[in-house]
Amino acid sequence: MSGDWSRYWCSPRPGLEAMHAHFERHTYHRHSHETYSFGITDDGRQAFTCRGAGHTSTAGMVLAFNPDDPHDGRAADELGFTYRIVHIGPELVSGALAGFAGRAAGLPLFAEPVVHDPVLAGGLGRLHAALLGGAPALVADELLDAVIPDLVRRAALSGPAARGPRFRAGSRGAADVAGQVAELLEDDYRTDHTADSLAAVSGSSRFTVYRAFRAAYGMAPSDYQRQVRLRVARGLLSRGTPIADAAAETGFADQSHLNRWFVRWYGITPGVYRRAAR
Prior knowledge:
Order of helices and strands: EEEEEEEEHEEHHEHHHHHHH
Mean pLDDT: 92
Largest sheet: 9 strands, antiparallel
Radius of gyration: 19 Å
CATH architecture of the largest domain: Sandwich
Keywords: Activator, DNA-binding, Transcription, Transcription regulation
Structural class: alpha+beta
Strand content: 15-25%
Protein name: AraC family transcriptional regulator
Distance between the termini: 31 Å
Helix content: 40-55%
Number of strands: 11
């Protein structure tokens, strides 16, 4: 029997969420977050792919994902892994860095998804404990404002992060094709598009669309559309929308269909997220 468990927490203000979990059998589907996501592996070994390479995080290591940074995740062995993760919106990162001397303008970019730094792990652990432990808001804010500059100073590149396509899209034309398809999937996310309809909107072949999109966004167009649907569903759930209604409004076949993909993406059920957000 699986020993999987998870706890999820959402701040009353947007852009700050946290989870503590242990997974033995759960496997994350390839996905990304709109936030920066910083994790700490407490125990065990977590394996994942990110930015075209495989990685393993063990006890004490820090995970650092940029916004829209596709990755997956799973236990590296049958013993599973326990980890903590804090999701921090770009606007909170920008606010904490306001007036921070000696860094380039714009949002930071973390080049390595796994960082071995006990100081950063300690700071993130204290922030995570405060968030899930119900610490006073001022205490949590002070820890957040201390952790973010530390993360940037010790682990980020000097240049700003770029939003949108983050991968090698080849030619400028290929990047344009991927961007046109992404715009369609974001604007018309409820429609069950076909490979031919994506090719038509971009004026390219089906093969060109698929190759350009994977290169630019790190996932297939079908996964990108599903992710858009899930993000919209999260917003609806956070406002108290019933799960069945959120499923219908975002193009899922039914509540169980939304539930299945929500778990594969986020490691928790829509019900758990809705209660945490409310």
